[in-house]
Structure prediction request, 255 residues.
Amino acid sequence: MTGNPAPHELTHDDERRLEAVSTSLGVEFENPDLLRLALVHRSYLNELGLESDEAGTDSNERLEFLGDAVLGMITGEFLYHRFPELPEGELTAYRAALVRTETLAAWAKQFGIEQHLYLGRGEVVSDGSVRERILAGAFEAIIAAIYLDRGLTRTRSFLRKLLQEDAAAFISAGQETNYKGRLQELIQDRHRITPVYNTLDVSGPPHQRTFEVEVVVDDQRVGIGRGSSKRAAQQEAAREALSHLTGEEGAPDHE
Prediction:
C-alpha cells in the first residue's frame, strides 16, 4: 500500500507501546511506523518544539482523515446488509451513531489506546483521562494504519467484529443523544454559543401527551420537533436543525 511514513528509529519505549497496542488489537503490522504514527497527537510534537513537516515528526491527523473515510464506508456496508428493510434516512442515522465521537472513544478505550498515545501533558484532563475527541481521532488513525498496512479485507474483518458485537447498543445510545449532541458541537464550533430549546406547546390527554419544541440559535429558530416526550421532541428539533444547517439528513461527521 502507498502512504507509508518515513522510517522512524524505534526506541525501547516505542517497541513496548507498539507491541502492547498490536497485541490488544489482534493485528500484526508489517510496518510498525504506521502504527506509531497513528498514536502521535499533534500536542506531543508541539510540546517537543517539533514542526509537523519535519521528516519523521508527523502527527496522526492525515491518518485520521483517511480512517474516517474507511470507517464510514465499512460501517455503511455493514448497515446496508444488516438492515435490508431500512430506508436511507434511518441508515444514515444509524451510521451517525456508530461513527460518532463517543462510539469511537469507547472502542479506543476497549483496546487500551489511551495508555499508549504520544500526547502532550496539557491534553490530559484533571482525573488523568484522555479527552474523547482525541481517543476517537486516534482510533480513526489506527483504522487507516491497518488499511494501509494490511489492506481492506483485514480492515473490514477487524471492524465487522466490533460492529457485530456492539452495533445494537451503540445505535440505541446514539439515537438517544446523537442529534442534540452533534447540533451542540456544530453550533459551538461555528458560533461559540449553545442552542436553546423552548417548549412551544403541550397537547393531548395526560397519558398521551404530544410536545412541540423549537431550537433557537442566536435568536433564530433553526428547527422544530414534536414527540411523545419533551426529550423526543428536542431530538427531532435538533435533527431538523442539522438537516437545515448542513443540507444533509442527520448530523455531520465528527471531526
